[in-house]
Amino acid sequence: MTSLPARAGRRCHNVVNPLHSAIYFTPDLARELAPYGIEDPAAVYFAGRAAPLGRVGPGAVTAAFYNFSPDLVARHLPGVWESAPPEAVLEARLRAADSMLRRLLGEEAVGSAEMAEAAELALRAAEACTRPGRPLYASLADLPVPDAPHLALWHAASMLREHRGDAHVAVLLHAGLDPLEALVSHTAGGRGMSPAWVLSTRGWGRRDWEEAQERLRGRGLLDGGGELTGAGAALREELEEETDRLDSAPYEHLGAAGTERLTELCRGYTTAALGAGAFPADAFGKG
Q1: Is 282 part of a structural domain of the chain?
Q2: Alpha-carbon dihedral of residues 154, 156, 158, 163, nearest 10 degrees?
Q3: Domain for residue 42, yes or no?
Q4: Which NCBIfam families does the record associate with it (predicted)?
Q5: Three-state helix/strand/coil letters over 216-231
Q6: What's the pLDDT tens digit per position in 76-109?
Q7: What is the number of domains present in the chain?
Q8: Which residues sit opposite 222 in a β-bridge?
Q9: Which of 1, 58, 78, 272 is the most exposed place for a label (fewest CB within 10 A)?
């Protein structure tokens, strides 16, 4: 098997993942769940992401999602399943993905030969994903692959995203970063969601955030201004590199040429989706 160029898998993930994760930021999923009485944004998110796991309670979701306040999770689970069982939410997810991709990418892209090619490549990559220790990926792997290419790509993107995410949780645990310390150090590096967005969606308070900052300062990972120290930046890069290693199998299976082609295709789709407003302007960065 030919070795991939350095960080090829990460580069591919970075353009494939938004095609999945946009579902939690666009109005499509909320619109599909509103008839069931699921309207709170957190309830929409938890139902939509947790539905593949089945009728789970707050403990399992807090563990698997990792960085949400347990109190916020318990506010919505398992109660949300009384409004809509997981089977109904799974159907709503697919309807939402369909309308989202058609709106963000356009009918021509959705029906194109390139879309079918991207779906085939992403599904081939997902063939090498592994289930042990990866609950979110494994739950998705139990679901049927949709027939329509754009939905098959969305499903494959979801599996690839959760496969990497499950591995990243293991890496965070090994590094001794609790959920808030992981969030604080991630945003301090200019990656991921902004602190304001995290606090408004993850259920933590400002004091929780400040206490996590103090713990990171005590480890020499954060400076007085809330920025990563050299040691903090090095740790964050080590975390990503170890996640790359644990998530390498799908891209090694796809091969260098296939990974490059999937990256090329999904970069175009993600660029189009971003241009069409797939994510709120204030959701990412240090703001």
Answers
A1: no
A2: -170
A3: yes
A4: SCO6745_fam_HTH
A5: HHHCCCECCCCCECHH
A6: 999 999 999 999 999 999 999 999 999 999 999 9
A7: 1
A8: 228
A9: 1
